[in-house]
Amino acid sequence: MTRILLVDDEPNMLSALQRALRLSKALAGAQIETFTNPFEALNRICVCEFDLVVSDFMMPEMSGGEFLQALKDVAPTTVRIMLSASTDFKTAMAAINDAHVFRFIPKPWQQAELEQNILQGLEERQRLLAEAGKAPSAQELEAQRLEEEEPGLLHVKRTDDGSIIL
Fold first, then answer.
1. Nearest Cα residue to 94 out of 132, 63, 140
2. pLDDT in tens, 70-103
3. pTM here?
4. Strands, DSSP E only, in the chain?
5. What are the distances in angstroms from CA 118 to CA 8, 75, 105?
6. Is residue 34 a contact partner of residue 6, using CB atoms and an 8 Å limit?
7. What domain of life does the UniProt record list for this protein's source (predicted)?
């Protein structure tokens, strides 16, 4: 199952971003979590793994660049995308260079562009996992897909003597 984390200090922006991702047929079934506080998001990342994180750049507690830099240190195979209303070239370059941001998306975003960048980010995640030796096999990916389509499909119940319970 695809896990996406969204971080923005503005709850309305988080809702709009989450709604935009839920409208995507390609991201159907993705588990999306949202945080308005980057420190709480980092705590969550330490508990469970995410495939991709989308963070705002301007946040009062911690900048998006600082947040994504810390994320890179604790979860190096999680793909990082930054959103910003700023069109300052230095802002984008700092994010890309310091936090190794995969994409920098301007606000307001275009639905198709956002979806395309998220999907490309998920492909990049598979590449990073393969490099780290953590990539699931084709069989594991197919089993995961089947389980997402039909929950419980791969769980076989058996009696004590090993026969299958239908």
1. 63
2. 998 899 999 999 998 876 667 667 667 777 889 8
3. 0.76
4. 3-7, 31-35, 52-56, 79-84, 103-106
5. 17, 18, 10
6. yes
7. Bacteria
List 81's β-bridge partners, or say none.
54, 103
- Looking at residue 1, the DSSP 8-state letter turns out to be -
List, as one string, the DSSP characters of 44-83: HHHHS--SEEEEES--SSS-HHHHHHHHHHH-TTSEEEEE
- Distance, in Å, from the CA atom of 6 to the CA atom of 14, rounded to the nearest integer, reads 7
* Phi, psi for 144 (deg, rounded to 5): -65, -45
Q: What is the pLDDT of residues 112-157, one digit of tens each?
A: 999 999 999 999 999 888 888 766 656 666 777 777 777 776 666 7
Q: Which residue matches tokens 């299958």? A: 164
Burial of residue 121, with CB atoms counted within 10 A of its CB: 0-12 exposed, 13-18 middle, 19 or more buried: buried
Supply the DSSP symbol for 158: B
Cα gap 149→151, rounded to integer Å: 6
Q: What six digits make up the tokens of 150?
A: 């039909």
Tell me, rounded to whole angstroms, the distance of Cα 63 from its chain centroid.
18
In order of their start, the domains of the chain are: 3-135 (3.40.50.2300), 136-165 (no CATH)
Q: How many CB atoms lie within 10 A of CB 101?
A: 25
